[in-house]
Amino acid sequence: MNAPATRKTSSAQVQVPGTDASVDISHLNAHIATELATGLASGAAIRERYGITPAQWDVLSKNEIFRAMLAEALQKWRGEHNASARIQLKADIVLEDAIATYDGMIHSDKIPASERINAGKLLAQLAGRTANKEGAAGPAHGGFTLNINLANGGEKLVIDGKAIPVNDEPA
Description:
The chain has helices at about 30-40, 45-50, 55-60, 65-75, 85-105, 115-125, and strands at about 15, 20-25, 145-150, 155-160. The relative contact order is 0.10. It contains 6 helices and 4 strands.
């Protein structure tokens, strides 16, 4: 389910006092804590995906900040009325992991052009690059359409409201 992701590392290392181990600061992130809390990935899978050594994992698992992130993720995940939030969170994690696959598809000559375009459209949608800028202002020429579906006979009533120019001069 979890595709190999590019290692998420930075150049900032946090040396743990009294040990030979250091942890990349990027490992102190809520995404790793969320993956653990949801059970979508095991500790071993997370270590492999993010390039975390066993010594770093030991340090990370004892880190106050990381443990607080994990506790918060567990609390959100286990919430009594959080079924929709859990579904959305799992879907978000799966989508994030699939981004590398879509990127590979877009840049592969072996994938048909139509599928590469579809992958590009999906990534654009996920990135919020497809929002209609005109949508918030309403229709360009005014008006509305109201559809009423009557349950008993399967009848449909459609009212089309067209914009009528208003003359500002008094009548």
